[in-house]
Amino acid sequence: MRTSKKKATKFERKLALYGLLFASPWILGLLAFNVYPLLASAYYSFTTYSILEPGKFVGFENYSLLLKDDIFWKSISNTLYYTFIFVPLSIVQGVALAMLLNLRIKGQGIYRTLLFIPSLVPEIATVIIWLWLLNPQFGLVNFWLDKIGISGPPWIGSEAWSKPSLILMSLWGTGQAVVIYLAGLQDVPQDYYDAAQVDGANAWQRMKTITLPLLTPVIFFNMIMGTIGALQNFVLPYTLTNGQGTPANSMMFYVMYLYTNGFAYLKMGYASAMAWILFIIVVVLTAIIFATQKRWVHYQGRE
What we know:
about 0% strand, mainly alpha, MetI-like fold, Sugar ABC transporter permease, globular
């Protein structure tokens, strides 16, 4: 018995060794490209480190300077404004489009393809398209608004309209979220709808009591991912304003300002402090969303 146990132990050790051997490229990559940069940025946030010089330890000086930085607070305000408006709108739009695409109508595949294509367009190309569409002088949006007697706003050129313009551009490319919602809709058992129809429930009642509750796990997932993505918004505003955040810093988003400090001003310690503050903001908002899920997220078989 002891001999067989020893053999089994040796075999298990060999299996574990082989497993670690095959997983070692991934483990080394994780340590080199994730763990080490994370720990290094935590250390650099307490230094005056730049890309050209190692810097010196200054304690919490970078964090105290951030609290006095007006552009830092403006970037937080812009980012939270974008997040709290874009994420709910993207959820409403995504669910509505998924429900429409889930209808059994002729040309269903064509409609699904057309609505998914914008999400495949590179963000730089998206900026070029929307700069033309939202041009206050000859853009198509203001042209059609004029046709119905509405004087179009200056859009990106206005401090008041710049962030709504950016939200409009972002909503144009939510095709991937729509696909996830569509998959969630198709996972709802047809038996539930049949039983509801037998009980006399109309379309609105079926959607309210069956579709939306059973879709909440998918909504929860997209809310988490959408919030994290919105807080890290960078490419669209950076490209639109050439990294300047104009007009009047109304398009200066948090990650843009972090990038500018780190790679334009070479204040890498300052940028590292910003990165950790962003990390804390992401963790807090994600924790709040997770804390509320018990009240509104419904999983099949757990009720």
